[in-house]
Amino acid sequence: MSESPIAPSPPAPAPAPAPAPAPAPAAAHTKRRSVAELSHDFRLANGRLARRVRQEQADNELTSGQFSALGAVFRLGPMTLSALSEEERVTPPSMNRTVNALVEAGLVNRAGSAEDGRKVVLTVTDTGMTLVRETRRRRDDWIATRILRLTPEQRQILASATEIMKELANS
Q1: Is residue 26 domain-resident?
Q2: What pLDDT, in 10s, does the model give residues 143-153?
Q3: Considering only Cβ atoms within 10 Å of each terminal Cβ, which end of the chain, N or C, has fewer?
Q4: pTM for this entry
C-alpha cells in the first residue's frame, strides 16, 4: 500500500502592512528645537504681535513711547517724572521730552506736589483717560476677534502660554 503524498499547505498570507499614523494637526505638530531657536522664534512672533496690536490706537499721532508713558500714569496714578522714568526704564531727560509732548497734546498735567513743592506730579487729563480707554478697547477687540477664530484646544493652549509669558515678563 502506498502512502499518499501529503500536499503542502499553502503559504500563509503576508501580514498586512501597519497603517501609517494619521498626520498630526498643524497646531499640534511640534519638532524638537533648540532653546536658541525657540527663543528666536518666540521673540519674532512676540514682536510682530506687539507691533500689530500697537496699530490699534485711538490717536496715531502719539509714538509708542508716548502712549506707553501715558498708559503708565493712567494705570499707576499720579507720579513724579523720576518714578515714571523708572517705570518705563528710560532716562529722566528722555522721559522729560516724552512728558512735554503729552502735556502739549493735553493728555497729561504737571502740578506741584502738595507734599513737597520741589517735586512735580504728573496726572492724566480727562482727554488722556478717554484716549487710553479707547485705545485699550480697540486693542482688546482686535485680539478678541482673532481668539474667536481659534479652536477650543488652541484657546486653552493660549491661556497656558499667556501665564508662561507673564512669568517670563516678571522674571
Answers
A1: no
A2: 999 999 999 99
A3: N
A4: 0.69
